[in-house]
Each structure stands twice: as C-alpha cells, then as structure tokens.
Amino acid sequence: MLGRIWLCGQLEAQYCFSTLLNRFFTLSAAFALVVPAGEACRYSVRDVGFADLGNERYTLRCFVGESDQDESGNRFSQAAKALLGDSNVEFELSSQNLQEQGSVLISPDGKRKYTIIPPGAGSKIDQLEWSIIQSVVASPVRNELTKKLISNFAVVLLIEGSDQLQTKRAQLAAMEAIKAITKLMPKMPKPVDNPPVLLQLSVEQSLAESVLLWSLGMDTKAAPEPQAVVLMGRGRRVGEMLRGGLITRTALQEALAVIGQDCECGLDRVWMQGERFPLAWGQSEKKAAFVELGFDPDNPKVKAEISRIIARGPNSRPSGKPQSASDNFDQLALGYSEDIIGIDEDIVSIDTIPSTEPELKQESKSVEEVEDNIEETPQESVGLRPLFWAMVLVVTITLGGGGLVLLRNRN
User: Fold this and answer.
1) In terms of DSSP bridges, do strands 227-232 and 113-116 run parallel, antiparallel, or are they unpaired?
2) What phi and psi, each to the nearest 5 degrees, are found at residue 9?
3) How distant is the alpha carbon of residue 228 from its chain centre?
4) What residues make up the domain containing 394?
5) Paired strand residues for 113
6) Digit-coded pLDDT (tens) for 322-380
7) What are the phi and psi torsion angles at 99 (to 5°)?
8) Distance between CA 71 and CA 191 in Å, rounded?
9) Among candidates 134, 120, 40, which has minimal Cα distance to 379?
10) Are 148 and 155 in contact, with CB atoms under 8 Å apart?
11) Do 188 and 218 fall into the same domain?
12) CB 115, CB 135: distance < 8 Å
C-alpha cells in the first residue's frame, strides 16, 4: 500500500514537472518573438517621408469678378476637382477685390503667398483656368523629381547660379556626399536598392520652375550663388536649404544620412517635417510607392502609426528653434568634419580644383571603423538584455517550483 502511494506521488511529480517545462518553452518562444518585434521599428525616416498626414496642404485661392463669377467660377471648380483630387493642394474660390486679384498659392502655415502667373495671351479663354491650376501641381521637373524620389534613396536638387565656380564646387560637394552615403547604405536599418541621385537645373530651367523653388524656400529669380536642397519621399525637404559656400559635402551628407535612420531613434522630428512641394500623387505614383516600400503609405493604419511616431519623439518645431545640422551629427556616427573654404577667383574650372579623393577614402575608412565598433558592442548587448533576463527569471521560477513539488510529494 505504501509502495503504491509512493509510486503515485512520483508520477504526479513527473507530470507537474513536465507541465512546467512545456510552459517554460512556450513562454521562451513568446519572449523570443515579442521582445525583438517590440524593439524594432518598421519605418525609416525615408518611409515617413512618403506619408501624407493631411495637415500640410497648400491653398490655391482664385479670385473672380462679380460679372463672370458664375462662368469662370464653374470652370475653376471643374478644373480643381479634376486636377487637385490627388494632390496636396486645396482650392478656394473668392470674389475679386481691389487688394487681391488673379490666383494666389498660400503655404501650409499660411505665412507665405505666391502669385500664380497666368499663361501667355495666346492661351484659349476656356483653357485658362485649367492651365493655371495644372501649373500649381505639375511641371516637367516636378514630374521627373517624383519618379526619382520613388525609386531612389533621395534626390539632391541643385540650382545653378550665374557664378560658375561656386556652382562647380557645389556640384562636386553633392557628388562626394552621394558617393560616401552610397557606401553606408548597406549598413542602414532599412537598405534601399538605388542610391541618391543629383538633379541639376540650369538657370534657364529654374526660371520655369518658380512654384517648385518658392515652395522649397529658394530664390525664384536668377542669383549668382547656387542653391541646393535634399528631398525624400513624397517631395519632402530634409534639413535647410543651402546656398553658395554653405553647400558642403558635410551638410549634404548629414541630411542624406538622416534619411536612412530608424524613425524610432532619438532623432529630432523636425527632420521628418520639412516642407513639401506641391505635386499630384495619382494611382501610378501610389502603385510605384507600394512596390518600392513594401507597404501602402496611404493606408489609414499606417498614417495613424506614423503620426504617433512623430508626436511622441523629440521635436524642436514648437519652440521655433529648429535643430541645426551639427546638433545631430555626432549621433549619426559618420566621423566627418569640414570647413567652408574661401573661393579663389583665379580658379576658373572644376578641373583645377584639388582632388579630394584621398581625403574621401581616409574618411570612408574612419566611417567603416566607427560602424564596426558600433556593431560589435552596444547594439547586440542592449537588444538581447531584456530577453536574457526574462529567460533567466522563467528558468529560476520553473526549477524552484519543480523542486518544491518534488519535495512535497517525497515527504
């Protein structure tokens, strides 16, 4: 009888112990799946640049006289409905007064206005309203920019100046920045197949793109100094507009490096909230972006998630003091430094500019060393630490509980 009771106690203890082991392995698997997923971010800064949260709309205000308000107003409304439906521009129709006339494009913050110049006198009257509205959201350069922004990591837009020497220096700085970032792209949280590209506009081309330049904070008239800006996603500007001697490899490279960062890092959200230029985003652009990104940036759930990411991160915009380029430079681990060098008037061609290839190779080597050091130490230990201690806790509880069960049944 005593032997039977002892045997039943042993069987019960083994059953309890096996049950605890099964639960232990189940919890371990759950921690292995949940903890890394909770720490990782699905989106990069570039991904966030494709989201249209609906709070950054330009306003196209068209004024018509009282005599032709019905006829011209109807044509404006029809053109706006057809051309602005898939854009980031809203349409308003207003009665003409002495202070305002024609058509005015208002920035999303309401602080800047740009008068739309109507087509020449040769345009047909019944097509005038359509031409005005179409010029707001479409142009040859903007159409090309949209395609490049979808398929490439980013676009460096360079507007030439009348000073050829400064323009060539700016062109060289942009090419070197693109070359350096291309080497770093495979190590970024979410690599992109195609590297950044340079889109350079001549003075004549820029004069026909006044809406684009105005929206990005650039001069709409010809200037002696070149202008440059980095663009990503759905036409969003990254960082500040650069001019003349401020167009350096370091400044451009930093803006490009920000685009490849994880959106959940401590990066200032002001980098994700730069101005967007007016553009149409139709079905073809939506499909191309979906194929490139692997998700739909227009999905309401994606918009809500990105909106929460931007809201809960550090943001310098409310204080009115944007974070400067150098403030975020250390956390990008690029290891570059550069000073603005005065321009020698005797230099007349890009061929006479001293080559910076050895310097670029040396700096690229330092970048790789920094990246290797980062990968070897803190990232792996920090990422695995919560999972490690959770598993240790589960094992301790399991063994302790199993030991108590065995002691109780043995007694």
Assistant:
1) unpaired
2) -65, -40
3) 17
4) 1-40+382-411
5) 106
6) 444 334 334 333 433 444 444 444 433 334 334 444 444 444 444 444 344 434 434 33
7) -80, -35
8) 53
9) 40
10) yes
11) yes
12) no
